[in-house]
UniProtKB/TrEMBL annotation:
It comes from Leptonema illini DSM 21528. This is Putative transcriptional regulator, Crp/Fnr family. Residues 30-149 form the Cyclic nucleotide-binding domain. GO terms for molecular function: cAMP binding; cAMP-dependent protein kinase inhibitor activity; protein kinase A catalytic subunit binding. PROSITE patterns: CNMP_BINDING_2, CNMP_BINDING_3.
Amino acid sequence: MRSFPLWDAIRKDQESPLQKELAVMREIPLFDSIPQKGLRVIRDQCHMRQFKDGEHIFRATEPGVGMYIILEGRVRVYSARSGREETLAELEHGDFFGELALLEETPRTASAVSDGYSRMLGFFRPDLDVIIKRNPRLSNLLLLNIARVTGRRLITTTEILDHALKELNQLREKEQ
């Protein structure tokens, strides 16, 4: 069947907000291999949040209670441990952050602030607990995906640290 760009554009504009949110979620690795019905179950547990420019989503040292999926806008994640703010990541539409808080209610290690108006889905630990109780199969898929994402991020962090240590050792050798 031949596709017509005009009709495709009209159909895309007619997508409901829910369909658009599910499409964003579908692209996130946390939801890999989760069927559409399961994705809707997860979306039904999410909470819509809106933030103004400069408004904090969370601050370092606050208890981590959940994750966020950016539907619109930008978020800057930063650390201020050394007395000055250092940007760790700049996130935008389709990105997610804070997922470790779904597993462990430890204090946040960084702060996140909205860079302009932003709209996002919040998925919090109590929401995951509901899914775990009601749908063990779905929760197993979700928890496995969280573990995979966490593992990938840990590998990336280890590679960055390894590279930084090699550079530091090279500098030390030059100084000697």
